Amino acid sequence: MKNQFDPARLTVGLAVAMALGNATGCSSGDNGGVAVQGPQYPQGDGGEDGSGTGDDDPAREPVDPDAEPPFQVPNEEARLLPFPVRMHNLAHVTGQSLDHPMYAELYELRYQLGDHDFAEGVAPDLRWSAERMQYWVRGLRSVCSDPQTQAAYAGLLADPRPMMRAAWGRDPVDEEVEAIQQLRGPAVLPADEAMMTCIAVLTALDFVAI
Amino acid sequence: MGKRRIDSVHPLRRRSFLKLAGTMLAAPAIPAAVRFAVDEQLVGEAQAFGGQQDAPTYFVEINLRDQWDFMHVFVPPGIATHTNLIRGESGNMCSVFYGPEEITDHGNGQYLTPDSAALAPHLDQIAMLELFEICTGAIHGHEAVNAIRSPGRSKQQGPGQSEVWLNEPGYAEQGNDYYFSSTPTPASLHNYWSKQLDPSLRNGVTLKYISRFHSICHYGAGLADAELTRIQSVDQLFQTFPEGEDTNILPTAEEAQLLQEVMERVDSGFFDRYGFANSAHTRHASNLSEAAGLWYGGDVDTVSLQLSEEEVAYWSEGVPGQVGDNLKANIWEQAAWAFKLMSNDVTRSVSLEFDYLDVHDTRGETTMNTMGLQCALPLARLIESFKQAGIWDRTLIAVYSSDGGRAPAANSYGNSGKNGMILAGGNIRGGYYGDVGVAGDMGNGHEYNYSVPDPVTGAPQAPVTGNEGRLSGAYAWRTVMKALQVPDDLAAQYPDVLGSQPLNFMLTNV
What we know:
The complex is a heterodimer.
Chain A: H1 7-24, H2 83-94, H3 104-108, H4 130-144, H5 147-152, H6 161-168, H7 174-181, H8 193-203, H9 205-208
Chain B: H1 11-25, H2 32-43, H3 45-49, H4 51-54, E1 58-65, H5 77-80, E2 104-105, E3 111-112, E4 126-129, E5 162-163, E6 180-181, H6 186-197, E7 205-208, E8 229-231, H7 234-240, H8 253-273, H9 278-295, H10 309-316, H11 331-343, E9 349-355, H12 365-389, E10 395-401, E11 421-425, E12 431-433, E13 435-442, E14 445-451, H13 473-483, H14 488-491
Parallel strand pairs in B: 1-9, 1-10, 4-12, 7-8, 7-9
Antiparallel strand pairs in B: 2-3, 4-11, 5-6, 10-11, 13-14
């Protein structure tokens, strides 16, 4: 089946990614504006007891201005989209703006989920680690159990494709649909089936990762 | 073969029961034969014989940055005993600010100052060696890796080497540099090994509380379960280990397990579609497996990281506050949190990251006193606390001058003189190994020399005045792994440590 990208989701994602890159001074070279290098800090080491004296280091080696930076997009680990991008994409899927209370827990966990606060010395951390999966699922519970999300995808259990399509920006393949529908099995409490299905769709790499 | 007694304990209670049993059996008064007999009853003869190999170990990796000077912690014998030492804060004066009458000789080359006197009761299990290969960062040696933490690290990518910095949030070149390596850093490998022994452990953590843009690289070298959780603020730490909450996100273990399986199936096409390496898929599967245990962990104990008034008083007394740009957490707080996490067996690998803002040109008495107290007092209290908790014999604390140490001259940088570590633990043989002394007078102070220990005997060799002849970082790394009881077949598989042996003169478990 041919993949179909959702232009709305793509536009929102790229716009926020580019805005984040500009705002934080991050590299926006080959990776579509996704923050990868972190903040640009003041130059020079400080003097004793914090009395910064600029770059007074005598032994710094010259830097070749034409040298390629030793960075390439890592292919050994899936990396998350920046937190604001994930949140905007989430708002697109649910149809509810980001000031809705359903997102409160995700915002409370924002730094655990890789967001940054340079003023406090917290840089973006976009590894999709086990603990980040933990916090993401924790935050999604209120999103997926919200009546407005459930109303937007009333037929989720019968057919998860509309949510998968909205979240992933493409049509899911049959294998993916079958996998998601495993969550209707006996291991899941009937009352949890819709929420679990929603969580699975919104935890997929196609939704959270680059 | 009889049924193992531990199998009769409910699975959810096994861990806490074994922890209690381990604590009781670790008491010094318990004869080894009794310890073995109880192990044999609990887990069977085969595992009792292998118990030493597979016993859990606890590792606190303390990374001190901006070219930390240990001079007021352990004064090298050659400096401590030199008559007419020219002390002072400028030029070639020696940056030790205590006179001979204040420096105390404890044998084995260990000379303490008033700043480090608290270490005296524990010296038989504290070793120091600060003559490893010098740091190579572009700015007078500053780097975020260090050959003693990742032997073979290089600025040019060699075969089998990968980027060491990729998992560090906000990593920038200045003062850190970009290195490649194939050797995992100590806490990362220990984290991997510990989780092999006990998959229910929480992931190891590193507290990224350096006040500046300087960082510490932790590197799992591609091992799926090795990477530490990076914690960048105190709030993050408390959110990572919440107190007294229901930590179960999903209602049953079955739902957590099923969600893991579903996500593996759903995500399997992602890696092929976007050209990821196979290792990315493997790592993701491993993370999902670990996440399932976090989505539903059962009836688990939580640890309170909030320090009581008594705890604050104990850990903080006499320890100067952090000196830096953007203060994050004091070293005594970090030590206290590390001890709480470990003594409650939440995790077994904790890295601390701390700094004293880089000092140039002059290093005065206040600077040296502060560094001495910030290093020695938390170290002494960690040792004391681990001893009281009954797990000291399975604990290692490694304190690194993570971006190089300093020559004794007040006006010195981390690209000359020293680069070292302090090891303290149940498997450590105490002593100051090697020596630093005075070669003659120079300028307003001295020229200094360095006697690197023989890697087999530990005896100081002929002194040199330059950076030549330092011990390979591989010796430091292998020594740490041996002290942590990481199996040789795991530790020796990395090409840059393969030909090096542990420094057995620093160890008791040889």
